[in-house]
Amino acid sequence: MSEIPAAPVIVADEPGTFPHGVLAERHPAILRQIAEALPYGPGQRRALDALLANCTEGTITPLPADAHDRDRWAAWGMDAHAGRSWYDVPWLWSESWFYRQLLHAVGYFAPGPWQGIDPFRPAKLAELDAPATDEELAALDDLEGRPEDERARALLHGSLWGNRADLGFRLSAEGAEETTAVPALVADDSELLWALLDGSPAGTLCLVADNAGRELVPDLLLIAHLLAHGRVARAVLHVKPHPYYVSDATTADVLDAVHRLTGAKGAARVYGQGLRAALTDGRLVLRAHPFSCAPLPYSDMPDDLRADFAAATVTVLKGDLNYRRLVGDRYWPPTTSFAGVTAYFPGPVAALRTLKSDVITGLEPGTEAALVAEEGQRWRTGGTHALVQVRT
Ligand SMILES: O=P(O)(O)OC[C@H]1O[C@](O)(CO)[C@@H](O)[C@@H]1O
């Protein structure tokens, strides 16, 4: 049992707070965006309008008895939250509920022509096809010829900062400015991570992906490099079983990203070919566990997922949402021990995250003071700072 006193769970009930803004402004913006992006029919549009009213002014209404995942959601707290405002249940829970309801509205789960059609796919593909992605891939050619560890570090950096590129975040973070007075990395345990990934012996890397497109591409490049240089023998890439948090990566997004790489020129193409080969021969394995879309912290993970992580040399969790789920979506004092709050995790664990929500642990007292002096509380949510935290 952890000896750290529990901190308050984040709830979005206070106007003016970041979580409240996500429910009151970002979710409606996402609904408008997908209604514009795809030619949904009248029934789907009515369902999206009903969701807009329900998520801003209504209450949690349990899934119908015949919903394929009703039992799962019941186990995840749905019946306990029934009848309550979206603003009064844990924020982590109401955000996940939003994506479950959105997919229902567009017919994602129902047998029929729209089954399995990702409402966020147009935005994901636009990002993958953007000139900025070409520039990032071309930069790989400049890395060729550099020492292996220098390349590895550059790819880790790309994977870390790729987390800024999530499409939901960009809906409300335009114009976020970098500051120079405090370091961009608020915690950096990357040497501990490299010690775990030194290839002696070469074990298994679990990487819990976050966003598709310009985050997933550098994640895949990092995996390809670690496999190609014997730093790991095998990689397990956890993706989402269905579209989630706008741009979260699914299996289809992995295939699109690998296709993008194999269709590129120069070094990018070689990375793509390596990834294809690794998928084909089983050195790179995909998982799409239902718990990856659960509205709960990882401390509640089921036994099969626990066993997967326990077998890894290290599990790397990407992104802000995974961080919230790893440490618990709570208002922790920022100097709370990261090792303490992740003590339950069944093996070495690393978080690679840009800061896009209030949750933070593991800061040195001086770091927190410098951040607050420079920016007030803006550093927590602006996406301009990042961290690499490791518990061995
Ligand atoms: O893509 P990421 O890094 O997981 O970030 C998703 C983020 O979106 C938000 O939930 C807001 O919708 C963040 O606070 C959050 O954690």
From TrEMBL:
Recorded catalytic activity of this chain's protein: beta-D-fructose 1-phosphate + H2O = D-fructose + phosphate; beta-D-fructose 6-phosphate = dihydroxyacetone + D-glyceraldehyde 3-phosphate
Keywords in alphabetical order: Hydrolase, Manganese, Metal-binding
Keyword Nucleotide-binding: no
Secreted among keywords: no
Any matching Pfam family: ARMT1-like_dom
Family label: Belongs to the damage-control phosphatase family. Sugar phosphate phosphatase III subfamily.
Name of the protein described by the UniProt record: Protein-glutamate O-methyltransferase family protein
Organism: Streptomyces tendae
